[in-house]
């Protein structure tokens, strides 16, 4: 594939304009075969987003929503489906369990197939249930079986707090020493992200003492996408189980959980999968474990559906991850997830990724153009991109490290209708999401950033 930079330069030559011109963005939008998917989402208007400043921007315009890594936008059909179920509940009460297009007793069963497609698994390897951290615990209860020799869990240094706490408490639950049992890996001195070779050599070196390799697949802070296939192979070569937290990967990058032989995985569905905060989370267990790995905790929803309601108290456990189900499903959460998965079903992760590489590459190109550090002009604000520049090692998010404190700049961006995420002291995480963001959004972001920096008195 033509490199992103080449594409941008070629388009600008065809249009006889500068590569930084808005016309390039507009042209890329016209060529974008997925642009119609944006219409399936509700995009907040600038005037509805405090603290926008309507003396600076037109409040009736859509905001530039680059916060999909934190919370995806609402699919238009979410409300329709929720209304349908509320109506059904009002009119038929308990009969709603068996009636309508989403009988509550098995409402989520229709969603496992589209979800499995997104993560590269078989439908029977995926369960939609609970929240992410709950699923992480349930999976670790079965996959983390420490012995005196093999008892460590490998995770990233500065892992997402919930994952860190979950792992820490699982270790404590087994009566083990936390400091000795948590093996963390961090970037080399002076580097921002972790080299794959360093992960592999650590597993090679310490693998005999590692029970579980438990990394995120896209690191939430740096945006680094780990080589899940190579890590899984290395872990298995040393006899470890390998699991991933795919919260920032699902709906963002292509995965082949089954083919890569990943033992287990979990994810939430409210980031790139747009199901709304606290939406129904996912869990995956490879089919090779379907009969050997059992849930530590059981509930009636893990029982074979055909005989579940005989209520004879003899567990007929569903194989694999479905046996890990505990409770009946929250039907309102099924609705919004269904609305989102239907949109994914109109495209493929492959096509989304193709757009994503260009969209994020375009953002990267413009940031480098305007904000590369200039040693002869130390007062000019500069941006260092923490996220790897290799598209194979990232999803859509870029983490931007500024040469100046970020809080005031972030506030100025918000006033201009930009939604993204700030981490003090100086990092912005911006996620152009291929499902609903446009190349024009990227251009508007860069323009707003220049204006925000000027408003903060930075030389620009
Ligand atoms: C978003 C995220 C979570 C959030 O966990 P919940 O149980 O959904 O609140 C946990 N871990 C990672 C890596 C995340 O990105």
Structural features, described:
With 460 residues, the chain is of the alpha/beta class. 35% of the residues lie in helices and 12% in strands. It has 14 helices and 15 strands. Strands 4-10-9-8-7-5-6 form a seven-stranded mixed sheet, with helices on both faces. Strands 11-12-15-14 form a four-stranded antiparallel sheet, with helices on one face. Strands 1-3 form a two-stranded antiparallel sheet. Helix 8 packs parallel to helix 9 and helix 12 runs parallel beside helix 14. The protein is globular. The protein starts with a helix and ends in a 5-residue tail after the last helix. The site of pyridoxal-5'-phosphate (PLP) has 12 residues, from helix 5 and helix 6. Pyridoxal-5'-phosphate binds next to helix 5 and helix 6.
In short:
The protein is of the alpha/beta class. It is 35% helix and 12% strand.
Distance between the termini: 34 Å
Rounded to an integer in angstroms, the radius of gyration calculated over CA atoms is 23 Å
How are helices and strands ordered from N to C?
HHEEEHHEHEHHEHEHEEEHHHEEHEEEH
Q: Care to count the β-strands?
A: 15
List of distinct ligands in this structure? pyridoxal-5'-phosphate
Query: In this structure, how is the largest beta sheet organized?
Result: 7 strands, mixed
Strand order of the largest sheet: 4-10-9-8-7-5-6
Figure out the total of helices.
14
Strand composition percent: 5-15%
List segments where confidence is low: pLDDT < 50 over at least 5 consecutive residues: none
Globally, the shape reads globular
Query: How much helicity do the residues have?
Result: 25-40%
How would you classify the helix and strand content by structural class?
A: alpha/beta
Q: Average pLDDT value?
A: 96
